[in-house]
Specification:
Length: 350
């Protein structure tokens, strides 16, 4: 049956029929991905249980080698794959709920995985002969290196598949609702941004004496940008990278392949000042001017504003919790004082 051959078909029916091949590819590859992750985790977790045959350099290093791949497997096994199977004939609901999971940061596990991948692959290369000897006995002809690359390959595949959906929707736009087309575009954009965010997290490994894994478990990584920086404290200009987390913003100086940590702006105690071709970040200890084009300035203005709003929301939430425990006049005065404190520490200048 052609996509436009039956006028009684609903928009959802037309969308499903036009994209059947792409949808089948999405679901089949998702099923294979989940199976590969489960088998790989079982296969390579097993070697750490046989400590007597384990090289000394691998003892106690399972968390480095496999990182958080178990968390990724659980996400796809219990959420993503069931979502695809349940809504395979309801693309609007599939895209809508998938988008919601991305927005609620369920895919942050990929940011953590990519940030740790450099250490994981370094550990693999340090024991490459050992792992190659295991391939045949374990029934894994591709080996563990291929397994360790699967999550990055999968997250990079999603925007490509979504783009094929979008192309088909556009070709058959007369029979497809604008809403499903918009949802697919929004999801594809969010997945591209997720991939970019994950790739950026790898650059945290270039910062000298920076404990990447422990920092990322305590503070969520948001984004990174490249700038020319006028450092008022050091009284000089240099090329820098600006890394935003949900609890702080750090800036580094680029020295060849290394990054030297130069300063931290703890949130919410930071002021953002937008200028014509730059913006200022400052607090009571630091003042830095980041030179950039207008589009990048607007992007970082939005990022900092959003981070500060999140800090305010969390602080007010804490105050609200406190008021449940203290209902007398004294606690009311404490609440006012806390709110004033919040207002004093949130500086945001347009």
């Amino acid at each position: 049956m052609s996509c436009s051959g039956n006028s009684r078909l609903t928009s959802g029916d037309v969308a499903e029929q036009c994209c059947r091949n792409v949808l089948n590819e999405l679901i089949c590859t998702e099923e294979q991905y989940v199976e590969d992750l489960i088998n790989g985790i079982e296969r390579y977790s097993r070697i750490f249980r046989r400590r007597s045959t384990l090289p000394p350099g691998l003892v106690g290093q399972q968390h480095v080698l496999l990182s958080n791949i178990t968390e990724i497997a659980a996400l796809h096994r219990h959420r993503i794959l069931p979502l695809m199977l349940h809504h395979r004939q309801q693309l609007e609901l599939l895209f809508e709920r998938w988008y919601s999971l991305v927005e609620r940061d369920f895919f942050y596990c990929y940011v953590l995985f990519v940030a740790n991948q450099r250490n994981s692959l370094h550990l693999y290369h340090s024991h490459e002969l050992y792992f190659k000897r295991l391939q045949k006995p374990m029934g894994d002809p591709l080996g563990i290196r291929s397994f360790l690359l699967k999550p990055v390959q999968r997250i990079a595949k999603y925007p490509l598949l979504l783009n094929r959906f979008i192309q088909l929707f556009f070709e058959h736009r007369q029979g497809i609702s604008k809403h499903v087309f918009t949802l697919a575009c929004r999801l594809e954009k969010r997945l591209r941004e997720l991939l970019e965010r994950a790739n950026q997290s790898d650059q945290l490994n270039d910062i000298k004496n920076f404990r990447v894994s422990s920092i990322l478990n305590e503070a969520g990584f948001v984004t990174m940008g490249d700038f020319q920086l006028i450092d008022v404290t050091l009284r000089r200009c240099y090329t820098c990278k600006l890394f935003a987390f949900n609890t702080c913003i750090i800036y580094t100086e680029c020295k060849g392949n290394e990054q030297l940590l130069r300063g931290t702006f703890a949130l919410p105690d930071v002021c953002f000042v937008a200028k014509q071709k730059s913006f200022l970040l400052c607090n009571k200890q630091h003042e830095c001017e980041f030179l950039c084009p207008l589009a990048l300035l607007k992007k970082w203005e939005s990022i900092v504003h959003r981070l500060l709003e999140q800090c305010v929301s969390m602080a007010i939430g804490d105050v609200a919790k406190d008021t449940k425990h203290y209902a007398d006049d004294t606690s009311g005065q404490q609440q006012v004082a806390q709110r004033k404190s919040i207002n004093r520490t949130i500086w945001y200048t347009m």
